[in-house]
């Protein structure tokens, strides 16, 4: 997701950077503070406390916590799975990385369209999205999701994005195979991106301008507000150091769950997404996200596919003006902007139940309309 950095810097940017590096070295650690989860015994806690940099630890944690996660008292986990075909898969991509993916399909009738999901920076495709995917599949859609390299259950250093373009290419490679499947190749296909995943979806579209029938973007990361960009000198220092220490976790970050989730009870549940990346952003990752938002700001006019853009008006993670700019500048003839009063960043996961259901209904209504339009 796009991160809003505090604008006030009490020291010179160079001194600010030196202080962060020194603090990092003195602390001797880069892992997030271990979290003690309610109802978790000592054995499971040891699984949770393991270093998640590499995928075997993340896969062990997911397997250990899978049933606990799905048993949480969240409205998304209460959607039934009866009548659905669900499949999990590990496949090695062209870069030699083992990618995790999952699909949800209606069991009886053929799907009306294909939906390909792009998750956010602090997310995976096996936690909250499980409920979202069930709801969409129960509404007649074939839903496909993947964890990016370095995220969730896919291979790669945890939370490390060496190249945003390369990540987008990995997404294109995976979803192209899905769409080439004879079972789905004649169906309309839609991108669905949340937060950072919105930027991924838009970049996929820009690389494949005629390949998709539309995109659903929820609080998309496609521009950082001008007054939230760090001072020019500090930005240049971070970019330079990223070339030397790209994997270091030196970029400060506020509590994203606190900023993104309005509902306190749902906010507490984010800790149970045990394989999501919760540490400070790695230097190269932060630089790649910044560069991507700067590129997207310059290319909004090139966006030409049908769009449904959704944003909470009280979002302080990605400013709603980001979505307004996309809506105004995109060359799409078929575009819709929906702003939700008093809603935070996590529209589909962190709001009161009635807001979550409202947003889901809006998505399904738009999909129904555009699936019929493309079928005709």
From TrEMBL:
Q: Which domain of life is it from?
A: Eukaryota
Q: Which Gene3D superfamilies match?
A: alpha/beta hydrolase
Give the Serine aminopeptidase S33 domain ranges.
110-352
The record, for InterPro entries, names: AB_hydrolase_1 (IPR000073), AB_hydrolase_fold (IPR029058), Hydrolase_4 (IPR022742), MAG_DAG_Lipase (IPR051044)
Spell out the SUPFAM superfamilies in the cross-references.
alpha/beta-Hydrolases (SSF53474)
Pfam families from the UniProt entry: Hydrolase_4
Q: Please identify the protein, giving its name as recorded.
A: Serine aminopeptidase S33 domain-containing protein
Species in which this protein is naturally found: Liquidambar formosana (Formosan gum)
